[in-house]
Fold this sequence. Notes:
The structure holds two protein chains of two kinds. Chain A is mostly helical. Chain A has helices spanning 5-9, 23-40, 45-59. Helices cover 62% and strands 0% of the residues of chain B. Chain B has ten helices and no strands. Chain A binds chain B through residues 1, 11, 14-16, 20-41, 43-44, 46-47, 50-51, 54-55, 58-60, and chain B through 1-5, 8, 12, 15-17, 19-21, 23-24, 33, 36-37, 40-41, 44, 94-95, 97-102, 105-106, 109, 120-121, 124-126, 152, 155-156, 159-160, 162-164.
Amino acid sequence: MEMNEDHADRRSPSSTQNAKPSTDDVISNTIKQAFIKVESEPLPDELQSLLEQLKAAGRG
Amino acid sequence: MPKTDPLQEELVSHVPSLRAFARSLVNDASHADDLVQETVLKAWSNLGGYQKGTNMRAWMFTILRNTFYSEFRKRRREVEDIDGKFAGQVVERATQDGIMDLRDFERVFALLPADQREAITLVGASEMTYEEAAEICGCAVGTVKSRVNRARAKLVSLLGTGAEDDAASSQSAPHA
């Protein structure tokens, strides 16, 4: 899985150790990674459009 | 040129996190985005009721959660996997950095009850405190801790052979 430096910095320290991670560590890391993955996705057009409309209305 | 209200700017900045939280409640991505859109509209129109200086992200998560439970609960589709057979088929080996294939994980994660998914997402992924998560979920701190523990135990049970014992995985399948 690709992961940029910013994401790598947010992993738990335990994942950077040489020791084989425990299942609990794997779960924690994977939950965080799944969350970060969605956060870093570009917003869908419909949602982006809605936000632009709201911001424009807010400026008006 | 008129400027956007700082609160409105902040609200927009939380939308990516909101999407991630929505995805923990709703397995289908397009349904999750519908939930986010509705939440954004509600939050925007109720921004006057937001107390400055409090946690806006938690406030928005609460709106999203309430929206989900009031409008989506009856429509959600849960995947039943009582004996864990399906989960056993999708478990793959953890990679060297301790992260398994996200799509496989998401399929197993979806087997958890919604209250456990949201609890472990709030505390384990969005870095909310137990107190903040309890406020968002409208329950006691102890309840959140219990849900997180049950979610972890269930995930360990489903994924247990994936990371710890190479030999064991070839001999036995995980069970719920």
